[in-house]
Amino acid sequence: MNSRFFIKTYGCQMNVNDSEKMAGLLESRGWTQVYAERSASLFIVNTCAVREKAQEKLFSYLGRLKRYKELDPACTIVVAGCVSQLLKEEIRRRAPFVDLLLGTNAYPRLLEYLDQRGESDFRLSRHWNEVTSLHRRSSFSAFLSIMEGCDNFCSYCVVPFTRGREKSRPLSLILRELDELSAQGYKEVVLLGQNVDAYLDPEKGGGFADLLEVVAQRSGASWIRFLTSHPSKFSLRIAEVMARNDKICRALHLPFQAGSDRILSLMNRGYSKAEYLSLVKAIKERVPDIAMAADIIVGFPTEREEDFLETMEIVEEVRFENIFSFLYSPRPGTKSSKMEDDVPPSVKGERLIRLQERQKEIQLEENLKRIGSVQRVLLEERNRKDPSQTVGRTAGGRVVNILGPCETGQFADILIDGAGPHNLKGRIPL
Predict the structure, then answer these.
(1) Rounded Cα–Cα distance for residues 388 and 35 (Å)
(2) How many CB atoms lie within 10 A of CB 375?
(3) Burial of 325 (0-12, 13-18, 19+ CB in 10 A)
(4) Segments of the chain assigned to CATH 2.40.50.140
């Protein structure tokens, strides 16, 4: 029997971590992960439903897997993740050859469902499902889940419908996994959750600032990161914990989505433009060297030019290290999907280009300031386009291309001698 499996992952770091957990479960049963589709008898597609484009990637990829099913009817195709949770009937209709649809809360029982070839449970539990078997894709940087789900119900977002309500992992279990990572020599730990700043220990009641302090003091890793934060939940205590713990990277992903108060209200984001900027100012006062990133949606229903210009004003004032910007697309079941998607595609596209071009200029301006500095870098991999270079990241998340072969998985002090909008260039000082 061919007991080899292949996993295709779409979406965020949460999805990557879920794929690591599914791989670990399969390996505990004797399966072997392979990285070429033709070698596998089990295919798992872990999906993302945040944007329509990501959703359609699934159906395109399933068309490719259909050919493997035709060649080997005994192979097994599993669709897991958010699209499976959200659009199971559509998947059954468009891809009837799929053997198993796996709900977002059901992956801890993957082995059971594979044995039964039955219907997955699609109920969204409010309880944490612990999975201890993981196959981590990196030997030096590890994801550590602390919570999942969301209670915010932003009008455009499907996460509450695909991941369910917020559920926090007990601190005792987090620390147990943290100790294992320390023993295994991991250099970096990334705390994961849809809204990590909403974390609340179900056993003792401590919040995210408390957890972050404990993790920073206890972890054997040199760097601690966390993703993602929500502005309405972010306590300045978190910034103060960051400021006094050197292990915590001076990096913060704080999505604002839009600059117009009218649009923010329609999005149900729970803060105003002024409140967001005031929060950023207070954070920078406590952590002056912090590198900030954000998510932005362009072309939300009723967005006017003046609304978009207010988004641009935030980009100008904050000067983000990076942004993740997307065209609005209506998602099934959300409040905004009932609004008229009235911003013409051409206008959406033109605004997105303007935003991205200005952000590119800002990134170049900021990166040029770092020429001549020495940056601490975690060396991640050889440059795929140029094997003579090694790619790493700074504590602030800036990509650095380093001339010469370096041992990956290690830290190095790099002299920055060049810069572009998307990366820094450097070398190990003589």
Answers:
(1) 24
(2) 19
(3) middle
(4) 374-427
Q: Dihedral angle at the C-alpha atoms of 325, 327, 328, 333, nearest 10 degrees?
A: -90
pLDDT, residue 383, reads 85
- Are the CB atoms for 298 and 351 separated by under 8 Å? yes
3-state secondary structure 272-332: CHHHHHHHHHHHHHHCCCCEEEEEEEECCCCCCHHHHHHHHHHHHHHCCCEEEEEECCCCC
- At residue 53, the pLDDT reads 84
Q: Report, as ranges of residue numbers, the positions in the chain whose pLDDT lies below 50.
A: none
DSSP notation for 71-95: H-TT-EEEEEEHHHHH-HHHHHHH-
| Six token digits for residue 313 | 């004003």
367 three-state secondary structure: helix
| Residue ranges, CATH 3.80.30.20, the chain | 141-365
CATH 2.40.50.140 for domain 374-427: yes
- Token pair of 369, please? 């300031």
* Residue among 222, 88, 200, 91 nearest 147 (CA): 200
In tens, the pLDDT along 203-212 reads 999 999 999 9
Edge to edge, what strands does the sheet with 223-227 contain? 141-145, 188-192, 223-227
Give 36-61 pLDDT, tens digit per residue: 999 999 999 999 998 888 888 999 99
Reported as a single tens digit per residue, the pLDDT across 86-97 is: 999 999 999 999
Could you tell me the fold of the domain covering 4-116? Rossmann fold (3.40.50)
> Residue 300 has what pLDDT?
98
Task: Return d(Cα 155, Cα 278) in angstroms, integer.
Answer: 24
Please tell us whether the domain made up of 141-365 is placed in CATH 3.40.50.300.
Answer: no
Q: Output the pLDDT for position 1.
A: 53
